[in-house]
């Protein structure tokens, strides 16, 4: 596991990375403000924002608590569906629909978490996987509400009324900045949580469960709380995805979506603050650019994974932090 | 980040800024000058990659034909294929890219119900014409449909109706459905039941299996025990190939006729002659139509010339039809203006590759013939000759669900 | 449902057991590598698919099905040896996540490589002539080839059991799985043992792919569903327990058969529901040792 975030700065180049870590939300906001200028197209930039947030929420369990969940699609998809259903079936405005999505994901996380946090290691992965599959099935079958395999259509948010001003949500640039605003808010919240006493407890539980328990921390409760928090972030990502694409495909609840979070997180560097975001960006950019060159893009994507594992085991961002902190590769 | 992508990004940013400054003028500029751009999202990778590549090839034939005959007053057409990976989320993203960045005039494509509904949801909000070339009943219905939505493919109701009318009168009335459990499957069952009701069919069971099932051995003994005249296996792609193979292994063909409502050329090629021997089904196009229909002959010859003697598949041919109707409508309208092209599409009476067709006014569904084919393992002219066309149901609006039933005003 | 005769129910149960044998076959290779090396081989499905294509390749060059039964596991196993030596070995001791990610990427590459070599469209694979048709098993007719697959699975299991329990190498492998440190102290080259286990596991995965080819045809995507099913069987049975894999495979098969009879649309989710229940009641699986991999 990469602990580069906590490493002592040992070289001058660490000054920059140290500053980046201290003002990480500010740095992220500045980067996201100019990101659409360099991204190939806005819809992809928004996808990166959303999947970055999703991987970030997942990282709370995986990177910070050391529990590998294979069921986060239920949280992402649950957020997307509840947000979509609020709009399609109840005509809810965006400021109701997004909280509805988060609430849906939190509820699912509470159920999955309550059952799964008692198990460890690979068994935790398998229980979350199995329960997520059950949720997939429930949403698949409830086609009157979810559209089933056809997906939920008509999550049409054309404009966002903010007091006297109205933002045109169909305009790609505006859509990007609206989503980016939510993502920055989520980054700020997560940053605060990690810096809080609860963040310290999370770290303590990961480092030494027995000692944390001996110190009087309720390990099971900490895990459950972290899972639910993770659900809230993933649910927000799902809700934003529903608004961005104006549909909720059943694929958002599938195993592959759970796997995506794992891969993005590992690729970027788990347990680092920005790693999941970097992983999401690299993964989606690679996929998008290479798939226009060749139909055999999966060969390239697969090779990148293999090379990353062999030569950059800390993940891309983790390796950069490690290098900045004065380490080798 | 390479220099080219940066340049592209800067150009896009500049275009975006210009658009924000004066959306109307840019819109006119895009619509009336430069090449006519057709976005084409299809699943170029994954299980239907071969089919999707055939769609692209057929669409290229339509583009080449249009350009060789002078384009629209010298304006040429170009095709922008994108890989939708058979995933509605990816398809929606790619459609946004095509509309927002590539500024395409039209979207044609898709190879699954959920993908076409996703693309349609994106295009209708942005008032871009979408001509769908895969099957779905939902896209005709008022809740999904928009004036910008056209449906060049058959839909499950038309397909199941034609196949049902053919098989119920010939092979018997005691029916078991083996249905993939999703909207496409349920729509097919509804179509068969509607067609079968006046003929007095008796449904012994409607067994629904999860999509993507790889083993049907636990379903087949029960079907055997029910002793139906007909087993109608309503699934698609690999599910269908495995069903046919395992039904053959379990000896079901000895006591019942097996029907596959959508019987695809590529599925038959992939599974081999043994598994599909004697299976009857429906399709929108089969290349041997050239024996009787001159436009099919002309299309096949052009396709063969451009693609090393290969023949177009059924879904491939739809790629040709879907693109050509739009380009012909542009010529008819004398412009690429969305409203004018829609009007021209609605007035088309065309025979481009399979006999006469037209778009019904209320839902823009292409009214067309349905081919009934039977898979064969003997008397094959060459390796591409896998079906006999046993019947053609001529185009007839009466075989569609009514406009009122779909929720349309007129 | 209406009339549910005894014969149909019996045949249904038999079909479930037969399907269970196929699940066992799919799971053994994964279970072996999982249990012995604690490597989560996400490329298991790809090795399975690779085996089926190796069969296609050999058949096109005139090899009989029977010759392929020997050659395919050797070819796929040899490829597995290369993968272990050059890709997996550097990752030992780095935790369970890295081999997982690596094999995930490898699976992508293998599937795409097969698409480049054999095309994206699937290929037919005929049942060997002597095993075509159906056999009367007393309660009804059952495809002869499926009976053969049950027999082949039993033979593979027996061979594997004899190898692990009755040979010196087997003893070392089992010891290496429990405590590699001690084995190393005793002067055994553990890395060679792990190499062998990986080759064995992937070879069996390839053999399973060849045996499955006549049941479902061959396509580049055929390994996808296999991975999930094999995982369920391995986890329900308990990691690293061959007996567990057998019992769990049969249990999953019968579960699917009974679900198929009453609520067929739930057949796929039923195996995940079964896994959730087993894990919540008995977190280490039916025959697993508690504490492993936690």
From TrEMBL, chain A:
It is found in: Cell membrane. InterPro entries: ABC_transp_permease, LivM-like. Pfam families: BPD_transp_2. It is a multi-pass membrane protein. Coiled coil: none annotated. Its main location: membrane. Keywords: Cell membrane, Membrane, Transmembrane, Transmembrane helix. CDD domains: TM_PBP1_LivM_like. The chain crosses the membrane at residues 25-50, 62-88, 94-115, 122-140, 176-203, 224-248, 260-286, 293-312. This is Branched-chain amino acid ABC transporter permease. The lineage of its organism: Bacteria, Pseudomonadati, Pseudomonadota, Alphaproteobacteria, Acetobacterales.
Automatic annotation (TrEMBL), chain B:
It comes from the Bacteria. The keyword Transport applies. Transmembrane segments: none annotated. Residues 35-376 form the Leucine-binding protein domain. Residues 1-20 form the signal peptide. Gene3D superfamilies: 3.40.50.2300. Keywords: Amino-acid transport, Signal, Transport. Pfam families: Peripla_BP_6. Belongs to the leucine-binding protein family. This is ABC transporter substrate-binding protein. It comes from Caldovatus aquaticus. The lineage of its organism: Bacteria, Pseudomonadati, Pseudomonadota, Alphaproteobacteria, Acetobacterales.
TrEMBL record, chain C:
The keyword Lipoprotein does not apply. Pfam families: BPD_transp_2 (PF02653). Its main location: membrane. It comes from the Bacteria. InterPro entries: ABC_transp_permease (IPR001851), BCAA_transport_permease (IPR052157). The keyword Cytoplasm does not apply. Keywords: Amino-acid transport, Cell membrane, Membrane, Transmembrane, Transmembrane helix, Transport. The chain crosses the membrane at residues 12-35, 42-60, 66-88, 100-125, 145-164, 193-215, 235-262, 269-287. Signal peptide: none annotated. It is a multi-pass membrane protein. It is found in: Cell membrane. CDD domains: TM_PBP1_LivH_like. Belongs to the binding-protein-dependent transport system permease family. LivHM subfamily. This is Branched-chain amino acid ABC transporter permease.
